[in-house]
């Protein structure tokens, strides 16, 4: 049985983590966002925002973490594995911020292919900033647009998850698995 890898993506503060946690409580295997751990580790070393100080290093660490998750998903004995973001998110963020990156970033996006991508749109009423999320709501909207563009450019047709309760959004995802 091949495990299907389902990405849940979207700009900052769109409810991805809450939806992932809801899917988990319903018994689905979920792999969580790796960026917060990378940010916390950098902060322990006195680097407040690694992405701002060394965007390429931060993105390389993200790419490594997401490749590891992709490979880990292959070893999980489950029909579906939901991932909080995919390798294509790294390229989208680099594009959004106008940072240069090596060609291997796009090659990775062509090598590690997900079965389906869901994208959560910006939602001002639920958006909040925190210690790891420094973007404004307006920037979150622009990041969402770049994420959608990057996934489309890499051959995906992201399914947009409508606003609603966490359970409604999780149900929408489960109802739209192809």
TrEMBL record:
Any GO molecular function: ATP binding
Cited InterPro entries: NadR/Ttd14_AAA_dom, P-loop_NTPase
Pfam families: AAA_28
Membrane-spanning intervals of the chain: none
Keywords: ATP-binding, Nucleotide-binding
Domain NadR/Ttd14 AAA: 5-169
Protein name: ATP-binding protein
Annotated organism of origin: Salinimicrobium oceani
């Amino acid at each position: 049985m091949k495990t299907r890898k389902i990405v849940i993506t979207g700009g900052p503060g769109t409810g991805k983590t809450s939806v992932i946690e809801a899917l988990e409580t319903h018994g689905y295997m979920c792999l969580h966002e790796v960026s917060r751990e990378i940010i916390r580790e950098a902060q322990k070393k006195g680097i407040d925002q690694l992405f701002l100080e060394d965007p390429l290093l931060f993105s390389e660490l993200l790419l490594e973490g997401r490749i590891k998750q992709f490979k880990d998903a292959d070893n999980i004995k489950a029909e579906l594995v939901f991932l909080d973001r995919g390798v294509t998110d790294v390229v989208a963020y680099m594009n959004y911020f106008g940072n240069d990156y090596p060609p291997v970033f796009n090659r990775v996006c062509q090598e590690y292919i997900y079965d389906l991508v869901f994208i959560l749109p910006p939602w001002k009423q639920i958006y909040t900033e925190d210690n790891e999320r420094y973007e404004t709501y307006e920037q979150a909207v622009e990041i969402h647009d770049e994420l959608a563009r990057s996934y489309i450019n890499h051959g995906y047709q992201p399914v947009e998850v409508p606003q609603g309760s966490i359970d409604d959004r999780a149900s929408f995802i489960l109802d739209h698995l192809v």
